[in-house]
Amino acid sequence: NWTVRLPNGSEVKMNKSECDLQNPPKFDKCEDMANLTHLNELSVLANLKDRYLSNLIYTYSGLFLVVINPWRRLPLYTDEIVAMYKGRKRKEMPPHIFAVCDEAYRAMLENKENQSLLITGESGAGKTENTKKVIQYLASIAGTA
Fold first, then answer.
1. How does pLDDT run across 12-50, given as a tens digit for each residue?
2. Same domain, yes or no, for 145 and 130?
3. Which domain holds residue 127?
4. Is 59 marked within a binding site?
5. Is 124 annotated as a binding-site member?
6. 24-33: long-range contacts at Cβ-Cβ below 8 A with a sequence spacing of 24 or more?
C-alpha cells in the first residue's frame, strides 16, 4: 500500500495498482506529451488542463497536434504570429496549427508530394475554426514562399 497526500493535505492509503505515477515538475505544461516520463490518462489530462488554463490550447502528442477549444477568441492568429511560424521547423516553435501547416507546406514543396491535414473531433470541438486557420495560414504564406 501507498500513502497518498491529497491537495487538501489529508492522506489516504491506496493499493499501489490504483495509483498512477506523477511526472516530475520539469514536465509541467509539457509541449509534447510523448516526452512525459509517465504516460497515463491522469498525466495526459493534467498536462492538457494546465496548458489550457494558461491559454496554451495546442499540445503535441508525438506526430499529432491536440487542440482544446477555448470557447473564446485568443490572439493566436495575427499576421505577426503567421510570420513567426513561416519557414520554421516544428520543433523550433511552440505547438500551433500554423507549425503543422508550415511543415506540410514545406514537405509538399521539397518532396513534390501531396500532403494532407486531418482535423477530427466531436461536434462543436472547433474543426471548422481550425480549418479556417489552416486556410488563412496557407493563403498568407503561399504567395511569399
1. 998 888 777 788 889 999 999 999 999 999 999 999 999
2. yes
3. 69-145
4. no
5. yes
6. 29/54, 29/56, 30/59, 31/59, 31/60, 31/94, 31/95, 32/59, 32/60, 32/61, 32/62, 32/95, 33/59, 33/60, 33/61, 33/62, 33/66
